[in-house]
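INFO batch 0412 | record 1 of 1 | parsing
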Amino acid sequence: MNMLSKIRSLQDSMSPALARIARSVIAHPDETIFQTVTELAEVSKSSEASVIRFSRDLGYNSFADFKMALALGQRQKQEAEAPHNGRIGQITGQAISSLKETEQLLQEEILKTAAQALLKADFISVMGVGASAAIAHYAAYRMTRLGKKARVFSDGHSAAMGCATMGKNDLLVCISSSGSTLDVIQAAKIARKKDAYLLSISNRDRTPLGKLVSLQLLTASPESPLTAGEFQSKAPQMLVLDLLSSYMQELAPELAEVARETAQVTSP
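INFO prediction complete | emitting tokens
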């Protein structure tokens, strides 16, 4: 049975709290895919325990399993409704939408503050695991192009060792779409104890990582169980890194010459 049809069929037999969750999921299935337990509890005016009970009553071991099933159902529905050869337009449209939404989230003043912090840093470390590691490497590349000393951490052990030797003039860029990646949070905690400046790039607000960093840059398109690491969720993060690079050159015009020099030595 289709997931939403199953929920509708059971809705009348649910307790008031679970019925409120059901109504929220039925009304906004695409949004539910991206929500945490806490977020769904808030929008449905229920509790986190009720959300977990709701998932289990539907036959799933966890809320994560429920979201995976819901995401699969929604994707199958979208593919069935898409016109022939419409996948190119669908994925391109999602990427454009996520970039435009990110544009609305970003504030020039905050970007300039982040750019100034990057300029002042003696050494820039970038932490990201999984798909975020690719963005971390891109971040370090952008900084190196401007003559900044930069390195990448893509696993918890190397990050812990590197952050343990940071100083107050160092900066750690934490990249985590969810804002809840355990290895990234642990690295941030270590760097914070060393008084390093912490900057995060995330697709979610009000996260464990957000509470640790000095400055948080938010991008649109949070990841669902099926879209983790996909282009539409990573393109906005790359946009933020390009903007930071641009603002750094605006604040320090001499970096334009450095960028030309680093480009020349890598040209064929």
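INFO post-check: The beta strands are 123-127, 150-153, 170-175, 197-202, 215-218.
INFO record closed
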